[in-house]
Amino acid sequence: MKSAPTLSSAFLKPAGESLPQPLLALRKERGKALVDMPLPTRKTENWKYSSRHLKLSDELANSLPAGGATTDAAAGGYRIVIRNGVVDASTSVLPQVEGLSVQRFADLTDEDAAELARSLDSTLDTRATQMARLNSARFEDGLLIRLKPDTVVDQPLFVIHEVTATAAGSAFPRIYVDAGRHSGMTLVEEFLSSGDESAMVDAVTEFTLADGARITGVRLVAEGQNIQHIGATGVRQLRSSRFESHCVGFGGPLRRHDLRVRLEGEGAECKLNGVVVTQDKQHYDNHTCIDHMVPNCNSEETYRNIAADESHAVFNGRIHIHKDAQKSNANMNNKNLLLSTGAEIDTKPELEIYADDVKCAHGATIGQLDDTSLFYLVSRGIARREASVLLTMAFINELVAQIPVEQVRNSANERLNQFFDDAFREA
C-alpha cells in the first residue's frame, strides 16, 4: 500500500533568528509538531479539489530574501510593507494615532512576545488549516497591531504583502490584531508580486475583538501566475462586536483562503463577502467556517465565483450553530457563473445546527449567462461582447461596490476589467 506523502524535512530547517526568545521557542515547538506531517491528498476532505495543485518542492523550502524591488500598490495614507514575509520599515508610513500600536515581531520585548506567543493560533483550527501550522513554524517577522479601548483609526491601514520572486522560495507573513473594547479600524491586505521564479506565500492573519469592537478586513489577492498562495484568517469576537470581511481574489496555479470566525460573545455579528474570478487553467479554493458559540448572534455570508476557460473555483462554506447558541440568525449565499463549457465550479454550503431556536438559511447556484438577458441587450444595439461584460460585471458588482475603501474598489475594478477583456476576447 502506497504511503501518504509527508512534508519534506527541508521545510523544517531553521529560519531567521531575529525574533525575541519566546517567539523562537514557539516556532521551534510548532516545527517539532510538523515532523512527518501528512500532506493533503484528494482523500483529505477540505483539500479534495486543491491537493493536486499544491507543489512543495524542496527548492520552495528556502526563505525568500527580505530585500527586493518595490512593486506598485494602490495604497495611500497609513501603509506598511511586508516584503517576502519581513516588515520593511524604510518603505512604510506608520500611523501616529493615539491608542494604536503597530510593532514588528522582531522589535517586541520578551514580555510582549511571550504574551503574543500565548495568543498565536488561538483563532484557528490548525487541524483544518494545515498550512497555517507551517506558517507558525517558519515566520521570520510579523505585525502586532493593538488598539486600546475606544480607539478608532480615522483611515484604513494598508498592509502591502510583496513577494519578489527572483529565486525559488517561500514567504510566511504573519499579522495579529488585538482590538480593545469599542475600538475600530479597517485593515487592508493587498498581495502583489514581481519576478518570474516559482514561489509560495503562506500567510496568516488573526483578529481578536473585545466587547463592542468594530473591525473591517479587506483582502485583495493579485499575485503573479508563478505564485502559489495559501492564506488563513482567524477571528474571535466577544460581546456586541462586529467584523466585516471583503475578499477579492484572482486565480493562479493555486490560490486558497481559509476564513474562520468564532462568535463567542452575545450580540456579536459578522458579515463575510467574497468575489473570485479564474481563467485559463487557474485554481481558487475558498473555505469558510462561522461558529455560533453563544446565543443572539448574527452572521451573513455572500460569495460569488466566476470561472472562464478551463479554470476551477471552489467554495466550501460552513455554519456551525452550537447547542447553546439559541436565537442565532445565520444566512449564507453562494452564486457561481461559468463562462465556458471547460470551466468548473464546485460549491458545498453546510449547516450544522445543534440548537432548536434559530433562524438559518443557505443557498447555492451554478449557471451560465442568461441567453434571454443577452439577447435583450444585443437587440437594443449593444455588441454581444459588451453585453456579456455588462451581465458578468452585474453578477459581482453588488459585492465589489460594498468594499468600503475606494482605492481597493478601483484597483479591483481595473483588474476585473482586464479579466473581462481576456474572458471575452473571442466573444
UniProtKB/TrEMBL annotation:
What stretch or stretches form a coiled coil here? none
The SUF system FeS cluster assembly SufBD core domain extends over 167-395
One Gene Ontology BP term is:
iron-sulfur cluster assembly
Q: Which domain of life does the UniProt lineage start with?
A: Bacteria
InterPro entries reported in the protein's UniProt record: Fe-S_cluster_assembly_SufBD, SUF_FeS_clus_asmbl_SufBD_core, SUF_FeS_clus_asmbl_SufBD_sf, SUF_FeS_clus_asmbl_SufD
The name on file for this protein is Iron-regulated ABC transporter permease protein SufD
| Organism field | Marinobacter daqiaonensis
